Amino acid sequence: MFTTTDYLPYLAQGIIASVALGGSSFVAAAALGLVLALIRDHSSGFVKLLIAIYISVFRALPELLTILLTYYGSIAFTRSVGIPDLSPFAAALLAFGVQIGSYACQIFSDAYRAVPRGLLEAAHAVGMPGYLINVRIAIPLMLRLAAPSLGSLLLVVIKLTAIASAIGVTELTRRAQIVSGATHDPLAAFGYAAAIYLAVSAILTIFQRRLETAKQL
Amino acid sequence: MQMNSNIKALDTGFVLRADKIEKHFANIEVLRGISLEAKRGDVISLIGASGSGKSTFLRCLNFLEIPTGGTVTIRGETHQASDALSRSRASKQKLRQLRREVGMVFQSFNLWPHMTAAENVMEGPVRVLKEPPKAARSRALDLLARVGLSERADYRPSQLSGGQQQRVAIARALAMNPDVLLFDEPTSALDPELVGEVLAVMTDLAKEGRTMLIVTHEIAFARDVSSKMIFLRKGLVEEEGPPRDLIASPKSEELQRFLARMRH
């Protein structure tokens, strides 16, 4: 009979999938959110409305439901077209990217609005074209303003990856379930998993603090 | 006709000419047709109570504010509201050309906080004028030295006093080699003890023959430095002339009252 400690390496390796899925979802979401926030700020009423609908839909849907719909929806689609199915990891990445992207879009929009208008005017006043003002002035300032909220969002996303276990991604929580099934000691298995999540979160928090203090200069 | 007026602007040596600039916000008429001509080396101060439209007028000259009517002519090129509103490449290009030729110094400095003083000064030359970064940096350092800030080149705006920030902003405007410098209440956001250092830099610029338009509440400074003073009231030019005449013998009751208020 194995104890939970025997399974620790197996369990700990689960964090790799969690962080990989969380990290890549976060990057996809941030990129999507940034682009949509910029489009939103420079476009007409109709496009603005579409983006507002996107944000409110995904703010309302539970992440678990989105991920299930994406997974089974993608299978229905690929079977009907006759192409290979999306892997659970890819389906989870797609679902998280799109859903978390709506949160990121809101964060970036708020940050964009918080950039003092005068700083953009100063760029116009030296004759910079619009795209350069975005690249050189608006986006760097926006990222600085958005950094604290984005840091919290990354932590949330890494925790959220636990629900990808519902479609069979064997990340940390899924592995804890498997281990508890084998050892009949759910408390120990889930306890270790919790400790691993805490450790990762602590590391990311320290990293974020460092970044923020470095930036203040 | 358009061509003729352009040629005339060049012939008579005007660096900048504003013709019947109007600006309406919804139903409010902020500017009701202001014209102005600046010759090379002119220093024109714009005075008036708050709400008289002087800052709006200045901002219309480089189209940061798009005028409702009127034209701005600089280097023989006439710009009008319809150009600025058009989304076409050519008009955007033309608008950027205008802004490149007109330097602007803002009340609240508006230095980019994520760049050092030198980087703020270099940004326009490198990105807009396509100067090589090395050359632009050495020119930026020269300009910072001219405003007395050679030691602060690598400081961020947040590490500088208001007066120092405004002097960096002046260097940033000079770096584009503009034909005209616009100053929008450059000392209004400063602590009183920091006003002098900024006015001293501006006085030097006036002495070296820069063409400048200055919106200011510093009447004594305006009197000493400017070749012409314009008093705006309710979106119109109420009185204009040599500053000493205007201050010594204001004709209109409004200017008399305005000057009396500024003295106290």
Notes on the structure:
The complex is a heterodimer of chains A (217) and B (264). Chain A is mostly helical. Chain A has a single domain (4-215), classed as MetI-like fold. Chain A has eight helices and no strands. Helices cover 43% and strands 24% of the residues of chain B. In chain B, the strands form two sheets. A six-stranded mixed β-sheet of chain B has the order 6-7-8-3-9-10, sandwiched between helices. Chain B has a four-stranded antiparallel β-sheet with strand order 2-1-4-5, with helices on both faces. Chain B starts with a helix and ends with a helix. The model of chain B is unreliable at 1-11 (pLDDT under 50). Classes of the chains: A mainly alpha (217), B alpha/beta (264). The interface between A and B is medium-sized, with 19 and 27 residues.
For the structure shown, list the relevant keywords.
heterodimer; A: mainly alpha; MetI-like fold; 8 helices; B: 264 residues; alpha/beta; Rossmann fold; six-stranded mixed sheet; four-stranded antiparallel sheet; 11 helices; 10 strands
